[in-house]
Amino acid sequence: MSRTSRLLTLLQLMRGKKRPVTAAVLATELGVSERTLYRDIAELTALGAPIFGEAGVGYVLRSGLFLPPLMLNADETEAIVLGLRYVDQRGDEVLSHAAANALAKIAAVLDPIAQDAMRNPTLLPGPPGYGYPENRVPLSMFRDAIRSQAKMHIDYTDASQAPSQRLIWPLALGFLNDARVIVAWCELRGAYRTFRTDRIAAAGAQGERYPGRRSDWLRAWRKLMEQNESGPFTPDKN
């Protein structure tokens, strides 16, 4: 983690504390030594952060105009809030937690008018859908493979209950109203395929990085889907 990222993370940690917190606790949560923590607090204080501390009590971040307000108009604010609430409804536990954290961070630096628009939106995401079938493989495993461009072995059962074993190059996760799917290049078929995650009985990283750039593979898939009348998220049938 870069020093700038660490300082911003420290500020976010302190924003979430309603009472003074000791340097030892902050250092542990940040994963640094207390000595480094003291230096970081001193630097933030010098930059104008309203951090106050007392021996034996701990540190507290008081309200103040330390960060400049994020300049978003009403439409931009509601678009972000709508998107994050949609993620909260349709994402897994990891994404729901991330959406809540993102909303808190955005709210902390919005001007008062935008904050009011955020608390009382004119746009709502609607019902959360029909519920998702249970996954036997956590979505975090697919996300990790996508980010690292790792080939994956999967045991898959298609809509006709035919089992198969595939070696795939995972490219993206799709969140539909009633299912989650993974977009991938399938070595068995030599083509792009889309697999419902609830039909994957087992999965594991193969230990090899697939060639090229994920963005290029995904761009080619999108171009192909523009010509596909069945839609981009039709699960694999063969």
Number of strands: 7
CATH uppermost class of the largest domain: Mainly Beta
Overall average pLDDT: 84
Structural class: alpha+beta
Which labels suit this protein?
CBASS_pafABC_assoc_protein; 3 domains; single chain; Arc Repressor Mutant, subunit A; alpha+beta; HTH domain-containing protein; SH3 type barrels; 41% helix; two-stranded antiparallel sheet; 7 strands; 238 residues
Summarize the structure.
By secondary structure, the protein is α+β, with helices and mostly antiparallel strands.
Indicate the topology.
Elements: H1 3-15, H2 23-30, H3 34-46, E1 51-54, E2 58-61, H4 74-90, H5 93-108, H6 112-119, H7 139-148, E3 150-157, E4 163-175, E5 180-186, E6 191-196, E7 200-209, H8 214-225
Antiparallel strand pairs: 1-2, 3-4, 3-7, 4-5, 5-6
Structure description:
The chain has 238 residues and is α+β, with helices and mostly antiparallel strands. Helix content is 41%, strand content 22%. The protein has three domains: 3-61, Winged helix-like DNA-binding domain superfamily/Winged helix DNA-binding domain (Arc Repressor Mutant, subunit A, Orthogonal Bundle), CATH 1.10.10.10; 74-119, no CATH class; 139-225, SH3 type barrels (Roll). It has helices at 3-15, 23-30, 34-46, 74-90, 93-108, 112-119, 139-148, 214-225, and strands at 51-54, 58-61, 150-157, 163-175, 180-186, 191-196, 200-209. The protein has a five-stranded antiparallel sheet with strand order 6-5-4-3-7. A two-stranded antiparallel sheet has the order 1-2. A hairpin with a 3-residue loop joins strand 1 (51-54) and strand 2 (58-61). Helix 2 crosses helix 3 (34-46), helix 4 runs antiparallel to helix 5 and helix 4 (74-90) runs parallel beside helix 6 (112-119). The longest helix is centred in the middle third of the chain and has 17 residues, at 74-90.
